[in-house]
């Protein structure tokens, strides 16, 4: 691990000011991903600004029925929060499907959103990777890419990248239209979560639209009454403690057998948590039947560009979408 | 960069100077000679380094020692009181829940965390009803909750009843 200076601040604004003055510094939350990447030589910050206990560690009610989640809330606490379990079960399930008990105790909500891909070409500094070292190429394209993206990738040129975003939690938050509260050198701003994570485009080194020095302070969940019937399903290579091959977050509002409203997001398929807007549009006003669900999934996945070894993700995603929608529409 | 820290480990405060890169695991093992937590994968994947930090199980290999502050660190060694093993220690022995012993201290700390989390009513990935009050530590619940601890000595089969027996005594099963 490269040497670094360790800093603490008295409040979030001071932490932001500290980091803004350190071009190759980083915030340290729970460290469950960053410390690992530092050990691997993938992350090499000069300065760590510890923010783990700086932002709120509380989940609080919003007047409109939504929830405000402090960025320092541990993943374990968020999953156990009774309001989350009752109003937004998809979020509790996504959190519980991720990592292990030990990691969930240490990982924070803010840090979870900023965790980096587990693409093995990214985490192995001896391999080419445009995300870790822009311009070096993408080893996964012609290499081992069974776990990689099928949607929204950049397949050639200096931006080539087929990595997936690893968070389960973020997939549920995308389905719930969460809003990320950010504190930066120029003050506060609110970022709809759909605008937080990026597709690789021509610069896969940037996972998010945050600017250097910007700190996630909280995540707000707007009220969504029909999310009380929501569900997260995750397909992975073993029963527990593994990243998603494909995951689905779904909530459906059905009245008289017709889909009035629906929220659908996929994990493990793209560089960012994938909001399935095409499928959502195809479903609104349609009968809540297996046929409609399958047609909507097919419409969403029509844009998929699977590679040599990850084509199985297309039918896996389709089936997982259909099963999950059937379950929540029941 | 060297920093002075004080760690409270198994009931005793210990002051030491560490390089900021030192993990809690390395501080415990290499500096404080507490070899109870083991270094397995060193990447948070095997759980052999599990300790309780303010009562919560964490992977000590991913915690930088400088971040620990005055939190209380309990290793499997420190779970014993007055030279008496912890009920989980006894139960692991009774049920033959370990073989080489390398991953056992982490398994025991993790099991202590599992019991505390179940007493607090925390659900898991296999909990059917998220809105239910309380948790029953069925075998499936124990397996899921212990899944952050990998032991390739084939001890899993005996770890489940070892944890279950203590859960039963504590009324979370």
UniProtKB/TrEMBL annotation, chain A:
<dbReference type="InterPro" id="IPR036318">
    <property type="entry name" value="FAD-bd_PCMH-like_sf"/>
</dbReference>
<dbReference type="GO" id="GO:0004854">
    <property type="term" value="F:xanthine dehydrogenase activity"/>
</dbReference>
<dbReference type="InterPro" id="IPR005107">
    <property type="entry name" value="CO_DH_flav_C"/>
</dbReference>
<dbReference type="InterPro" id="IPR016169">
    <property type="entry name" value="FAD-bd_PCMH_sub2"/>
</dbReference>
<dbReference type="Pfam" id="PF00941">
    <property type="entry name" value="FAD_binding_5"/>
</dbReference>
<feature type="domain" description="FAD-binding PCMH-type">
    <location>
        <begin position="1"/>
        <end position="226"/>
    </location>
</feature>
<dbReference type="Pfam" id="PF03450">
    <property type="entry name" value="CO_deh_flav_C"/>
</dbReference>
<dbReference type="InterPro" id="IPR016167">
    <property type="entry name" value="FAD-bd_PCMH_sub1"/>
</dbReference>
<dbReference type="GO" id="GO:0071949">
    <property type="term" value="F:FAD binding"/>
</dbReference>
<dbReference type="InterPro" id="IPR016166">
    <property type="entry name" value="FAD-bd_PCMH"/>
</dbReference>
<keyword id="KW-0560">Oxidoreductase</keyword>
<dbReference type="InterPro" id="IPR002346">
    <property type="entry name" value="Mopterin_DH_FAD-bd"/>
</dbReference>
<dbReference type="InterPro" id="IPR036683">
    <property type="entry name" value="CO_DH_flav_C_dom_sf"/>
</dbReference>
<dbReference type="InterPro" id="IPR051312">
    <property type="entry name" value="Diverse_Substr_Oxidored"/>
</dbReference>
<protein>
    <submittedName>
        <fullName>Xanthine dehydrogenase YagS FAD-binding subunit</fullName>
        <ecNumber>1.17.1.4</ecNumber>
    </submittedName>
</protein>
Automatic annotation (TrEMBL), chain B:
<protein>
    <submittedName>
        <fullName>Xanthine dehydrogenase YagT iron-sulfur-binding subunit</fullName>
    </submittedName>
</protein>
<dbReference type="InterPro" id="IPR001041">
    <property type="entry name" value="2Fe-2S_ferredoxin-type"/>
</dbReference>
<keyword id="KW-0001">2Fe-2S</keyword>
<dbReference type="GO" id="GO:0016903">
    <property type="term" value="F:oxidoreductase activity, acting on the aldehyde or oxo group of donors"/>
</dbReference>
<dbReference type="InterPro" id="IPR006058">
    <property type="entry name" value="2Fe2S_fd_BS"/>
</dbReference>
<dbReference type="InterPro" id="IPR002888">
    <property type="entry name" value="2Fe-2S-bd"/>
</dbReference>
<dbReference type="GO" id="GO:0051537">
    <property type="term" value="F:2 iron, 2 sulfur cluster binding"/>
</dbReference>
<comment type="pathway">
    <text>Alkaloid degradation; nicotine degradation.</text>
</comment>
<feature type="domain" description="2Fe-2S ferredoxin-type">
    <location>
        <begin position="3"/>
        <end position="79"/>
    </location>
</feature>
<dbReference type="InterPro" id="IPR036010">
    <property type="entry name" value="2Fe-2S_ferredoxin-like_sf"/>
</dbReference>
<keyword id="KW-0479">Metal-binding</keyword>
<dbReference type="Pfam" id="PF01799">
    <property type="entry name" value="Fer2_2"/>
</dbReference>
<dbReference type="InterPro" id="IPR052914">
    <property type="entry name" value="Aldehyde_Oxdr_Iron-Sulfur"/>
</dbReference>
<dbReference type="GO" id="GO:0046872">
    <property type="term" value="F:metal ion binding"/>
</dbReference>
<dbReference type="InterPro" id="IPR012675">
    <property type="entry name" value="Beta-grasp_dom_sf"/>
</dbReference>
<keyword id="KW-0560">Oxidoreductase</keyword>
<keyword id="KW-0408">Iron</keyword>
<dbReference type="InterPro" id="IPR036884">
    <property type="entry name" value="2Fe-2S-bd_dom_sf"/>
</dbReference>
<keyword id="KW-0411">Iron-sulfur</keyword>
<dbReference type="Pfam" id="PF00111">
    <property type="entry name" value="Fer2"/>
</dbReference>
């Amino acid at each position: 691990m490269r040497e670094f200076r360790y800093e603490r601040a008295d409040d979030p604004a001071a932490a932001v000011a500290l980091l803004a003055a350190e071009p190759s510094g980083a915030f340290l939350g729970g460290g469950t991903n960053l410390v690992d990447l530092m050990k691997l030589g993938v992350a090499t910050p000069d300065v760590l600004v510890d923010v783990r206990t700086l932002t709120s560690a509380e989940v609080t009610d919003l007047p409109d029925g939504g929830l405000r989640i402090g960025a320092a809330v541990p993943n374990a606490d968020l999953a156990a929060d009774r309001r989350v379990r009752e109003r937004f079960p998809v979020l509790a399930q996504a959190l519980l499907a991720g990592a292990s008990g030990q990691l969930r105790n240490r990982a924070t909500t803010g840090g979870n959103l900023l965790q980096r891909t587990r693409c093995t070409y990214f985490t192995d500094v001896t391999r080419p990777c445009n995300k870790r070292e822009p311009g070096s190429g993408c080893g996964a394209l012609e290499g081992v890419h069974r776990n990689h993206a099928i949607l929204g990738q950049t397949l050639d040129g200096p931006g080539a990248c087929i990595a997936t975003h690893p968070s389960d939690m973020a997939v549920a938050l995308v389905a719930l239209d969460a809003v990320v509260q950010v504190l930066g050198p120029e003050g506060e701003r609110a970022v709809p979560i759909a605008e937080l994570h990026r597709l690789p485009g021509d610069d896969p080194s940037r996972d998010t639209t945050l600017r250097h020095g910007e700190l996630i302070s909280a995540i707000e969940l707007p009220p969504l009454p029909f999310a009380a019937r929501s569900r997260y399903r995750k397909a992975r290579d073993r029963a527990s403690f593994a990243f998603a091959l494909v995951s689905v977050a779904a909530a459906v509002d059905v009245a008289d057998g017709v889909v009035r409203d629906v929220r659908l997001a996929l994990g493990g398929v793209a560089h960012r948590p994938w909001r399935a807007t095409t499928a959502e549009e195809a479903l609104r006003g349609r009968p809540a039947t297996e046929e409609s669900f399958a047609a909507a999934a097919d419409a969403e996945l029509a844009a998929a560009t699977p590679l040599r070894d990850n084509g199985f993700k297309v039918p896996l995603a389709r089936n997982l979408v259909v099963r999950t929608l059937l379950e929540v529409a029941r | 960069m060297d920093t002075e820290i004080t760690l409270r480990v198994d009931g005793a405060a210990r002051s030491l100077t560490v390089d900021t890169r030192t993990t809690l695991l390395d501080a415990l093992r290499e500096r404080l000679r507490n070899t109870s937590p083991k270094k397995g994968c060193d990447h948070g994947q095997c759980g052999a380094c599990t300790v309780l930090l303010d009562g919560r199980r964490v992977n000590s290999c991913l915690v930088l020692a400088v971040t620990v502050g005055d939190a209380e660190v309990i290793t499997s060694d420190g779970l014993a009181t007055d030279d008496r093993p912890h009920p989980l220690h006894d139960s692991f022995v009774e049920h033959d829940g370990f073989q080489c012993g390398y991953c056992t201290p982490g398994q025991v700390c993790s099991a202590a965390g599992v019991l505390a989390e179940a007493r607090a009513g925390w659900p898991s990935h296999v909990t059917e009803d998220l809105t239910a009050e309380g948790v029953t530590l069925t075998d499936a619940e124990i397996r899921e909750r212990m899944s952050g601890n990998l032991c390739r000595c084939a001890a899993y089969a005996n770890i489940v009843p070892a944890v279950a027996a203590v859960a039963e005594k504590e009324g979370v099963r």
